[in-house]
Write a structure and sequence with these properties.
Domain HTH arsR-type (chains A, B): 8-106
Oligomer: homodimer
Pfam families (chains A, B): HTH_5 (PF01022)
Keywords (chains A, B): DNA-binding, Transcription, Transcription regulation
CATH architecture of chain A: Orthogonal Bundle
Number of strands of chain A: 3
Radius of gyration of chain A: 17 Å
Order of helices and strands of chain A: HHEHHEEH
InterPro entries (chains A, B): ArsR-like_HTH, HTH_ArsR_DNA-bd_dom, HTH_MetalResp_TranReg, WH-like_DNA-bd_sf, WH_DNA-bd_sf
CATH class of chain A: Mainly Alpha
Largest sheet of chain A: 3 strands, antiparallel
GO molecular function, one term (chains A, B): DNA binding
Chain lengths: 111, 111
DNA sequence: TTATATTATCGTAATATTGCAATATAATAA
DNA sequence: TTATTATATTGCAATATTACGATAATATAA
């Protein structure tokens, strides 16, 4: 098999899983951190920042674009990338919805 | 290849990616949500909740245990699972560190 | 036009993930 | 002891992911 049975789960569960997958590689985490810190459009230097080959980075960028976390516009010969603020907020909320579900079980230690 | 080049990235980047991987499957999201909502020890019923075979769920539980998000203790014949509060806090902070890095670029729309 | 520079896509090899049947293990009950 | 019940492990097939060389596409410069 090797194929996820998405039909068994809710849209929210599948959405969160899909987004989490975008964060599930250190190169993509690094790209996101770099764009967050720069807080502006970045072109090119990503390839020099990370130690991966250009096609590999291009592929990671494609995945991040696919889920909408980043956006890129052609700027002459190169492409400028930055965080998509609206989608970023959405993603943040997706995770926070889960994180805030937790409340410490009071007066009883669980297992 | 197919193998992630972890040596190129920081411990934090690899850690976040590893944790994100735990969230990167709807079945594991469902398990986490179920434990969060129950807010107590759950045994067994997970297999009935999700529509996956018992070995498959056992495998997902193993992965969640491996990164420390959940813990299980043997309770007679069955096993009680619950969220690990300390690790949950850590994971929450890992993500929040990233989310709070973002500040809306003021007075300039990016790309 | 022909170069040059930057990014994207294709093709492919290596490895990882998902799912489950079969089986094993562990704890209690009879 | 021998059931029974619940969970874990093994082994394997199908599919997905990661990485990169080769090459294509795109935009500007000469």
């Amino acid at each position: 098999m090797g194929v996820t049975k998405t039909e068994l789960f809710t849209a929210e569960q599948n959405d969160l899983a899909q987004v989490a997958k975008a964060f599930a590689h250190p190169a993509r985490v690094a790209i996101i951190q770099y764009l967050l810190k720069a807080n502006t459009c970045i072109n090119g230097n990503l390839v020099q920042e990370l130690g991966l080959a250009q096609p590999t980075i291009s592929q990671h960028l494609k995945e991040l674009k696919a889920i909408g976390i980043i956006q890129g516009t052609t700027e002459g010969v190169s492409v400028s990338y930055c965080i998509n603020p609206e989608r970023w907020e959405e993603v943040k909320n997706l995770f926070n919805n889960l994180f805030t579900l937790f409340t410490t079980p009071s007066g009883r230690d669980c297992c």
